[in-house]
Amino acid sequence: MIEYASQPHYLVAVDCIVFGFDGESLKLLLVKRGLEPEINKWSLIGGFVGPEESTDDAANRVLKKNTGLDGIYLEQFKVYGQPNRDPIERILSVAYFALIDINKYSAQLNNDFQAEWFPVNEKPELIFDHNTMVSDARKRLRYKAALHPILFELLPKKFTLPQLQTLFEEVNDTKMDTGNFNRKMNSTGLLVRLDEKDKSSSKKGAYYFKLNHKKYRSDFHLVLNLMPNLRLDI
Amino acid sequence: MIEYASQPHYLVAVDCIVFGFDGESLKLLLVKRGLEPEINKWSLIGGFVGPEESTDDAANRVLKKNTGLDGIYLEQFKVYGQPNRDPIERILSVAYFALIDINKYSAQLNNDFQAEWFPVNEKPELIFDHNTMVSDARKRLRYKAALHPILFELLPKKFTLPQLQTLFEEVNDTKMDTGNFNRKMNSTGLLVRLDEKDKSSSKKGAYYFKLNHKKYRSDFHLVLNLMPNLRLDI
DNA sequence: GCAAAAGTGTTAGATCTACACCCATGC
DNA sequence: GCATGGGTGTAGATCTAACACTTTTGC
């Protein structure tokens, strides 16, 4: 007869792949690890799951501690459960990806914690299986972003169509046709054009848009066809 | 300074939502639970994760034990990590959904284990949060099946277009236009028509098809548009 | 005026949807 | 011959991809 008491118990952690976007490239928030083994090496933001909290709670707590932010877009995407993924002791890690508005929060991040933003294609080597986690998270982000408008979570309140297109191109590692992109975005009803223009990157200037939050909430689960020729790994 | 030793350890389990299809309705494989608490109540197939195995290994082992089958289509989809989900002690559960060909394996299942197939809409109440798991698994199956040809995993070697359509309709809880469905399926290149017909459900008979395995493997990650007007929860 | 980025228009082709219509066969 | 489920055809609407074109404005 199987009983609970005779079964092995394990450490359980959460790790967060935190994405940001600075208008040019997709970025990743990494921290210098604060405990042995591999102390002071780059790692994902993570921590152990406490006895009174769910894994979601733990991920939010860890993010809050490292970024000062509440209410971040957070999505659990995979458990890493290989018995030997940590050299000291078995730890199961529940991985989350997080999307944050980099502009809003960068000041706090860089001062209060040993956190640093890296362009996603120029990240340092990470500890353990964190490199795999990042790779998996990028795939998952790509998948979700092709079907749902989650990338708006990465943008500031005001943004331009060229910025939005760059973001899509970064996430999908591809180039898109501007005409078709604009038409598609405008047809979703998710964008509200403002009168103001951003002239920082062109003479003509690009209109600022804001998100139609009502439409965003109501149509979030509607599957859009945001990327042509979609081929997705996961 | 945080150290591993001072952190809490938890039980970790896997639970499998096993789907089957008998040609008419989508089914769920459930077992009578074999340990306290809630012994002899209906539950998902599950078990504790052993010290030397990954969670994937554990899911495969548990499935093998309960179904006699190797090489089942298996996909991890969520961790259930609420601290109080089990009344005795905290257990984190890694949930997998599995797709199996019901015809091939039903004999073994029903004899050797206390396993039973239930139509997915007529399942009994399950223990703990297993009802939520089933509901989440159905959503995830729906999502994936709308974009990738995974439902073939549920079908026998030979199947007809009407059967396939019924399966899609069951999974998505909707009705589809036969003409459009057939055209779409044939255009994927995934089907190979056989000479034989199934006359069991009509006078004219429906051609049997088999899966083009090569195409299935090569195009698996290509995102198809298998369902119109898609709205997906997860 | 010219260069450069933003944004609009156009067009051929593909796909989608709804629905009408033929097919094969057991009774 | 007719009912029944299987399967095909078709026309209009919609969507797509590619690319040419216009707009704006700092220099």
Can you characterise this structure?
The structure is a homodimer of 234-residue chains. By secondary structure, chain A is an alpha+beta fold. Helices cover 30% and strands 26% of the residues of chain A. Chain A is built from six helices and ten strands; from the N terminus they run E-E-E-E-H-E-E-H-E-H-E-H-H-E-E-H. In chain A, strands 1, 2, 3, 4, 5, 6 and 7 form a seven-stranded mixed sheet that branches. In chain A, strands 8-10-9 form a three-stranded antiparallel sheet. The two termini of chain A are 38 Å apart. The model of chain A has no long low-confidence stretch (mean pLDDT 91). The interface between A and B is large, with 44 and 45 residues. The structure holds a DNA duplex (27 and 27 nucleotides).
